[in-house]
Amino acid sequence: MLVRPGGQWVSGVVSDGVSAVLRMWAVDGSDTVDLFVDGPCRGRGLSGGVHTWADEGDCVYVSTDARGIVEVTLRHDAVVGERSLAFDVSRSWSTPAVEYMNRTVYAIADWKELWGCDIANGEPFLVHGDSDFALDATAGVDGSCIVWNRPQMAWTESASYPERIVSDIAVQQARFSRNKGSFGFIDDSTGVSNVHILGDQIVDPNISIIDHCEHGAPTWGPGQRTWCFNTDGTRVAYTRNEDGYSSLWVFDRVTGSRHRIGQGVHGCLSWEGNTLAALRTGARTPQQVVVYRLNNLLEPQRTVLVRPADSRWFENEVDVELVEPSVEQAPGNVEVPYRLYQPHRPHGGLICWIHGGPNDQWQVTFRSQFTYWLSRGFAIAVVDHRGSSGHGRDFMMSLNGHWGEFDAIDTVNVLRHLQSVHGFSAAKTVLMGASAGGLTALNATVLDASLCAGVVLKYPVVDLVAMLHSDDSFEGHYMPLLIGSEIDAEKRSPHRNAHALANTPILVFHGDQDHSVPLHHTEQLQDAVNDAGGNIQCEIFAGEGHGFRNPVYITREFALTEEFLYSMMKNAR
């Protein structure tokens, strides 16, 4: 999502899960224009990376599923033409960027190479292909991007090409102001991912917005934009991750003043003139497009420009079920943060939910599945075990060599805290996790099965030995850093400890086309638990991958999970 130069329109990709369209909305709500309907790419979560505007606002360049990078031309506010640039259409393209003379478009190919293409004669050329990974093209005088090499990930050790990678520093979201006079980025050189602005003609010395909290999240995909310049580079908008909650701020580079603009998790920040736009969400706020009019920083005016298409999210009976979580800490050798959602009509049931990644975090965003279970009386605890992002570099990196161990220990500590302090019963507690979260849920049960009455999993990581030798193109190389030795992997693989799971009911969902965590993980778990005399129910969804899309399967997942949970609740009486 971006503000079109001039500040009168906001553009973004809208998708119903099947098709997508690049659309723009007038900031005064008066009009809507479809810019491109022929298969624009779709961003991930609150990220973008799909399109960019030329500086005059008369052309937009969009990454597409089948046509590479397409130039769409406008006259006034209407589309008058389009053409495909000469990028190789057999490759995957992301984050187009236009250099300051509007002569060259840069883009990333297959998350590996930075390419440029001359807008006038259409000749593409390779700019950088010597790094193992490349993401988020940037255009100043020449092309730039974020790069990193095996065995690291973008959030553990990376740089803004052509700068060299520095050990133990991760860089993300390098960008220029639209007038190309100012440059900045986020890095974790202070131990926390904060915004840094290089000195320029506006403010001579380098400036760092030093905070105790993170300004960015791990680079799981292209186009994350949790900070941005205004048009002339004099001000910076940025987000603060406050124990999973978030707020939006503006920093004035000239005066050094900071102004809190809004509450909620914001992404896709874009600022032109006095118009700051963002995707915004929260525990009680379904994802929406908002614009802030910043004529006066002391009195920012927020307008909701686009809401979800389904009006039922705004009906009173739904709103009653939406709750804000409290931020808690489970004591121990390491204090473990978690967020606790309490339903309005509780019956004592508790879902302890563990995020995937494992280097990730579930911030306080709108999650329809949370609303579903809260409406049915279940409390929900979301665990930030060691390795989670949002709490500084040291906390995230502390899982290295101990995945499957420290995360499970931390989850057990949270369960004990929930039961001793908040009064939840183990007989009414279920652990839930998907992917890496599934591994953590299983290993927490192995450590102390008395703390929960059941486990619900989606495509769980089970075989750490297989993960240690994974050929996954994005993060397979990272597994040895996370896991450690083959002996460690063997010891922490849940199916090797099936005897400790035999008395705990387990429900597992897995797609047979999952290439990130192949089906054999669940098959090995099923065989091991059955051999140990345990109770495991496995549901295999044909054609599904790492994340379910078929509405029939999603409905079945919820129905079977609900049946599982109420069986647990019935047995607890």
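the 2nd protein, sequnce then structure:
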Amino acid sequence: MKNPLLTPFDTAPFSKIKNENFSPAIKHFIKVTKSEIDKITTNNQDPTFNNTIVALDITGKELDRVTSIFFNLNSAETNDEIQKIAQEVSPLLSDFKNDLLLNENLFKRVKKVYDTRHSLLLNEEQKMLLEKQYKGFSRNGANLSDTGQETLREIDSQLSQLKLKFGENILAETNDYQMQITDKEKLSGLPEGSIEMAAQTAKEQKIEGWVFTLDHPSYVPFVTYADDRELRKKITIAFGKRAFKNNEFDNQTTILEIVKLRYKRAQLLGYKSHAHFVLEDRMAKTPEKVFDFLNELLEKAKPAAKNEFDKLKAFANELDGLKKLEKWDGAYYSEKLKQKLFDLDDEQLKPYFKLDNVIEGVFNIAKKLYELNFKEVFDIDKYQEDVKTYRVTDKDHNLIALFYADFHPRPGKRGGAWMTSFKPQYKNENENVRPHISNVCNFTKPTRSKPSLLSFNEVTTLFHEFGHGLHGMLANTTYKGLSGTNVSWDFVELPSQVLENWCYEKEALELFAKHYKTGEVIPMELIEKIKASATFHEGMQTMRQLSFSLLDMAWHGNNPSGINNVKEFENQSFLNTQLYPDVKENCMSTAFSHIFQGGYSSGYYSYKWAEVLDADAFAYFKENGIFNKEIASKFKDTILSQGGTLDPLDLYIKFRGKKPNPDALLKRAGLMK
């Protein structure tokens, strides 16, 4: 049988791929890429920008494509077999990456070009590619001794497997839990759609009553609306206990191994900590600057957060005589208080946010801003029947990108939302190769009586991921290593977070917020309430985000060798940001996928960092009109299309004409007049 991954393809041939195709294809393309590298290192000519730097950038195209397809499937459509393959190929890929970055002859050639960079007539993009490649070697062990390089290889191989294990454990724990309810009275307070979905889940499992799970579309409405406090407590504790049960899926030892190996790696490379290593290559540059940034925000948010929390406690006491507010009460009473203050209930809004309409809305906004057209097509292979595929063109009908959208939870799909790329953008001689971009989310599925209706929070999530998608789709750089989202991690959230702002604007909402039954456009009164409630509990929300960022920095900013107890260490880190009493059975770190499985270690602060940029950028739109063509073109030409071709601050100043002003965020959040 032919392996479809070894036959040239444009769009990913999902329907033809079998699990057993991945390992041979990855091994084959590792060999192919190695031979491409050998061609560079055995070139008898003196190293030049073209024969070394450009040549290196275009290596590994097939390997990148196959691994991007595989690892997205491992996140979006996994099973035991795919997870075993991931455990097999991850160390191979880690070894290959080290073979590349520790290749002495290759580094010598790159260094020779780098050392003569001032005499070369390079443009800004070329300078950035050279700088990035040189740093890629120097920051990953090229200057180490043979023994040091061997140690680095061992560490990287172990880390790649530990990160996979971390994610597999959370998925197993999430899938393993369900709460069955057979007494209808216990469903009091829950929205009709939530009850219907739980009945559908029970029916699928051939069991009586209603089944609630730890998937967000099931879990979040339950803790927000269920009147039964004991059941809210039960499912909240179950959610917080994931991978923290001293069983085969426990992540405590995994975390300690990960942070100790990361620290050992940083020390080996000459850095004080993992955070020092990571941040050298980010906008923030140093842990000290990150701590200053976080603590300055904390100082401004904490009084507001404490005030909001005290009012919430008083409200719960007044409403139900509740003396102590626990974590399983937070979302429930917050929603009740929000309804009282703004006469606004998420269930009131949901009928106006039918998923299909929201998708059309975000497409329409992209058309008004960037002159993009999205047409659903049915001739592109997909990995699951729920996935929708679109052809994206500009006003002259030129292909801009292919877009895949995967929006509903299922057992083989990890929680959360993300953007990925199945094919990057780059320029090849006279051809501008266009990207294939994917958004993956977990929104409520349609039921027998209702289409998929989104909460307002889910609407902003869809816009957020689509913002990342636009960053990928509109990429227009020469080199794939600088294309799309290949930017500093504290800059990558700007395109995603800025797009969320349109969800709060009347002019944008009227394009897509239409009642799924009547087609009525969302009433002005509801839009006003959405805007008025936008800063509701912003102090508490900011404090929550800061607590996660500070926990991340605590794990990665110091020597972790003295940490033996994950829960105790986490509690210590939360002391300055804690509002609710601790739940002894729960641990946040054991399910903190962003920093222990994803790429956000020492980088969780970047959400808040990018919020400063996005608030300042959107203030510019607001001053000139949210659909102002000139400002939109500037944003597209200086940010969305430019990838990592310039220092991010320089790109931002090109767009805005000045450095970002942090006051814009504090004003928007209602933390500053």
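The mean pLDDT is 95. The first strand starts at residue 179 and ends at 181.
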